Amino acid sequence: MTPPDPDTPFNQPQQPALVPLPYTPVEPVECLARARRVYEQMDQRRSVRHFSDQPVPREVIEYLIRTAATAPSGAHRQPWTFVAVSDPNLKAEIRRAAEAEERKNYERRLTPEWLAALEPLGVNWHKPYLEIAPWLVAVFQQNVELLESGERRKNYFVTRSVGIAVGLFLAALHLAGLAALTYTPSPMRFLSDILKRPPNEKPFLIIPVGYPAEDCRVPDLQRKTLEEVAVFLEG
Ligand SMILES: Cc1cc2nc3c(=O)[nH]c(=O)nc-3n(C[C@H](O)[C@H](O)[C@H](O)COP(=O)(O)O)c2cc1C
């Protein structure tokens, strides 16, 4: 019997259907102008811990989540869930649970090095913004997906994927004129209980979203320079 010809289509791996890339060409000069403009806008982003209670319409949050969900993800598994909370009772419950954990952190659990690192930020266990910000967006990562068949399907590069989605979310809300904080209470298990999330979802962080308070002040921080964060190896 002759062995099958390795070049016949029969032996090629199945090719997925490909569609044209939606892409509008941009001239190099325009590209540079846009890159600079995006940088200048994003350089104004700051973590905000003093929010106004001015409402933000749900539709705005929906677009921000849609943007976050355009993120690339390992094997395109999109291993994230965004739970947007504006219910005052739930926000109060989250604040109570977060402050209980934070109090233990600040009073007993944080190492002296960690406390020293937090000192320039002027943060403590009080988290009033968890009730004042009109929205708390709790992000969950799905290490496995529960399929309708009841099977558990593994996801890939989950933390990196969710981190990128959160980055897009933060950029989108900043460009839309809103402010936010990336808040990571530890431990965060209480979020799963309060928000009644399924067992395959693990809390990633909480993002209070809203307008900054009129008298909002932020720590006087410097960012590393390009030279400190980048290496170019040019040909
Ligand atoms: C992964 C991550 C976790 C963070 N956790 C907290 C937090 O629990 N509480 C807080 O007040 N800020 C938190 N921050 C905000 C940082 O303190 C803040 O990004 C940093 O000081 C730089 O300030 P900027 O965001 O205004 O540039 C966190 C930021 C990141 C990226």
Model description:
This protein has 235 residues and is an alpha+beta fold. The protein has helices spanning 28-42, 58-68, 88-109, 112-118, 129-132, 158-175, 189-194, 226-229; strands at 80-85, 135-142, 144-146, 152-154, 179-180, 201-210. Strands 1-2-6-5 form a four-stranded antiparallel β-sheet. The longest helix is centred in the middle third of the chain and has 22 residues, at 88-109. It starts with 27 loop residues before the first helix and ends in a 6-residue tail after the last helix. Residues 46-47, 49, 121, 123, 181-184, 218, 221 line the site of flavin mononucleotide.
Strand order of the largest sheet: 1-2-6-5
- Give a quick account of the main beta sheet: strands, pairing sense, barrel closure: 4 strands, antiparallel
Give the termini separation: 53 Å
**Which structural category fits the helices and strands?**
alpha+beta
Helix content: 25-40%
Cα gyration radius (Å): 22 Å
Secondary-structure map:
Layout: H1 28-42, H2 58-68, E1 80-85, H3 88-109, H4 112-118, H5 129-132, E2 135-142, E3 144-146, E4 152-154, H6 158-175, E5 179-180, H7 189-194, E6 201-210, H8 226-229
Antiparallel strand pairs: 1-2, 2-6, 3-4, 5-6
The chain binds flavin mononucleotide.
